[in-house]
């Protein structure tokens, strides 16, 4: 009798599980390069991300998947100041510090972000640009924080360091995707984090994190290390080279002048 009762419970549990199947989906992605070298003639680079959504069973009907890709550069503390006219003089009147402001941030999606993720998901994963910037908001109200955040985003967007491209990703047959991210010439050296998200109904169903290494190489690397590790020697060397090339140019023009 007890065995029959346990069998009944197992059968009911199995039936409930079969009536509500779970669909396992995961990201399979590759990049055209995982290392970017900054040389003396570096003019920028491009990261191409391509991949597919791997499924163990068909996706739910009438449910559309979306893909988001973010590329985040090294973060640092940034202070944004606002200038106001005080007694006829423009002066710094207010400021706000950002504890973790990415030096570079690009985001691509297969549709407008408002349709791809909900607010709770954005708070959890820090996907959008404002969420990726962590502000030190002590003694600041929400309106003032938003004002300074918008100012930082506006400045870095004009410099090409913050990029948002809705519909920048192509999703073919709800499976294959591809996107391109342009890196400007003034990028910061360091580890760049790539995040890929699959979303449905505004929520993340799978994600993948990777890294791209951005480093100075060759003569550019040597001068950079010298300037940061031996600033006195770097300054003396720069002064010597300026004097040498100035003298050389002056001597050359003296000989070629009729």
Structure description:
The protein has 258 residues and is of the alpha+beta class. The chain has 2 domains: 22-73 and 102-216, Immunoglobulin-like (Sandwich), CATH 2.60.40.3880; 217-252. The chain has helices at residues 2-19, 113-116, 119-125, 129-132, 142-158, 218-229, 231-256; strands spanning 25-31, 35-38, 45-55, 65-72, 75-86, 89-102, 105-109, 134-135, 162-166, 170-172, 176-183, 190-200, 203-216. The strands form 3 sheets. Strands 2-13-12-4-7-9 form a 6-stranded mixed sheet. The longest helix has 26 residues, at 231-256.
- Radius of gyration based on Cα positions: 27 Å
Annotation, overall tally of beta strands:
13
Global structural class = alpha+beta
Fraction of helical residues: 25-40%
User: And the CATH topology of the largest domain?
Assistant: Immunoglobulin-like
Count of alpha and pi helical runs? 7
Instruction: Write down the secondary-structure element order.
Output: HEEEEEEEHHHEHEEEEEHH
């Amino acid at each position: 009798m007890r065995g029959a009762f346990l069998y009944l419970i197992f059968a009911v549990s199995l039936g409930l599980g079969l009536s509500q199947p779970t669909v396992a989906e995961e990201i399979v992605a590759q990049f055209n390069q995982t290392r970017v070298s900054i040389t003396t003639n570096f003019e920028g680079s491009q990261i191409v991300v391509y991949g597919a959504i791997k499924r163990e069973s068909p996706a739910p009907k009438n449910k559309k998947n979306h893909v988001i890709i973010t590329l985040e550069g090294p973060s640092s503390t940034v202070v944004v100041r606002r200038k106001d006219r005080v007694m006829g003089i423009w002066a710094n009147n207010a400021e706000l510090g950002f504890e973790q402001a990415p030096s570079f941030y690009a985001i691509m999606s297969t549709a407008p972000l408002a349709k791809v993720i909900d607010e709770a998901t954005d708070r959890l994963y820090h996907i959008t640009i404002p969420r990726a910037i962590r502000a030190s908001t002590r003694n600041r109200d929400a309106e003032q924080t938003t004002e300074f955040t918008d100012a930082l985003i506006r400045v870095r967007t004009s410099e090409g360091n913050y990029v948002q491209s809705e519909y920048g990703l192509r999703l073919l047959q709800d499976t294959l995707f591809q996107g391109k991210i342009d890196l400007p010439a003034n990028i910061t050296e360091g580890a760049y984090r790539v995040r890929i998200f699959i979303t449905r109904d505004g929520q993340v169903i799978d994600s993948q994190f990777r890294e791209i290494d951005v480093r100075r190489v060759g003569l550019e690397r040597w001068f950079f290390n010298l300037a940061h590790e031996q600033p006195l020697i770097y300054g003396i060397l720069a002064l010597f080279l300026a004097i040498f090339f100035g003298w050389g140019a002056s001597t050359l023009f003296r000989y070629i002048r009729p």
